Amino acid sequence: MRPEKGQATLLAVMVIAIIVILGTAGLTLATYSKRAASSSADGTRAYYAAEAGVERAIAQLKVDPLWRDGFTNVPFGGGTIESVVLTELSRTAAGVQVKIESTGKYGKARKKVEAQVTVSYDPFISYPGGSQGGGVNIAGKGSNDDLTITSSTTVIGDSNHPTNLVFGGRGPASPSELKIEATSKDRPVVYGNVYTRGNVNVTVPGGQSGSKGGSTAVVGDVWANGTITLSSSSAIQGVYHENAGLNIPHFPASIDPTDAVKRQQFIDYYTKVAQSYGSGHYFSGDHSFTSAELQNMNGVYFVNGKATIAQRCRDYAGRATIVAATYIELDNNAELQTSDPAAVRGLLSLQDTFMRGNNVVDGVILCGDTLCFNGSATTRGAIATWGIGVDSSEQGGHRWQGTGGCCHRRSWDVKLLYDAAIFLLYPPGLPYTVKVDYWKQVS
């Protein structure tokens, strides 16, 4: 009996040992599983932080396509956006391509997300797009808004600055007629292509030479969704295309002074953007900019009222845009010029922009209502506006006619020039679109 008892005891000991071993293994496995789950959760949160870094960078690029500062160690959800680095890949009139690398951290876990985006001007501003960029783009006001250019001192583009003229960005309905009328005294000329949603009528007296375009009114091609009528074969220097099927984009929908909701959204948005740049960028009422203010500007400056520029600034520095909730007025022969190849100014008014006097502007002008001339003016850059208008103090005389026509006297000299170098500086605060080319986790 004793051997059998010893065997039973030995068996019991072995069973207990196996139980202890299995229990220890189970505890170790449970601990490992818990740690693995924790590590997985930390990795997920680190990934979320990295994604948030990309999203914040895109938000900054939508305000300023040339923003490259990035940021480091930004708290997010208990973790950190450890770093965001931006690299410009290309810059053309069609847009700016930027690579964004964002690293998120949570606990000991790190995750990296990479994205590539293309930031572009609003399509109406950059039409016809591609390498050509913008020009002088006029949406047209009203349902039957014809535009007549007839003054001899109106020049759109020149031999050094080919400038497209675009007319009609209100939508598929309401075609308009663009008329370019020359007489023995009045010789307007467009050095560039013409694009219109409606009809084109070019009248040039035969056998007569003028100070600007001679017997040619358009030094370029003409594209129209309607018909094209020429008084002579020499009226245009290029070729013309009727029933062209152009899809001219709408004027930026966010800029509409007639819509109370959009108007308030405009004010709220630019208040927030301007204040994000710090003090001196937001003005709660009308503001007249001093020479010192105009000389060195960076970022977005929002005037919740009328913005007045009455100084001559002939060599400004920095990249900046002045935004007005009502009007922008350039008075007293005001000038905004620069010799700095990295400097640019944008002018954005929710309502009219008035150019009164012998004004010169290097920059991109976006006008939510009517761009009005009351004197000589030269613009270099690009223009996008609802209409070309008449300053109420200057009625009559030779003019750009129509609902959105611009009145100016024969003694005035209006030159509207497209400058690709200025256009490619993408002033901050204008309407931009962001397209994500790709977005992926890389580690």
Automatic annotation (TrEMBL):
UniProt keyword Transmembrane present: yes
UniProt keywords, alphabetically: Membrane, Transmembrane, Transmembrane helix
Transmembrane regions listed in the UniProt entry: 12-32
Name assigned to this protein: PilX-like prepilin protein
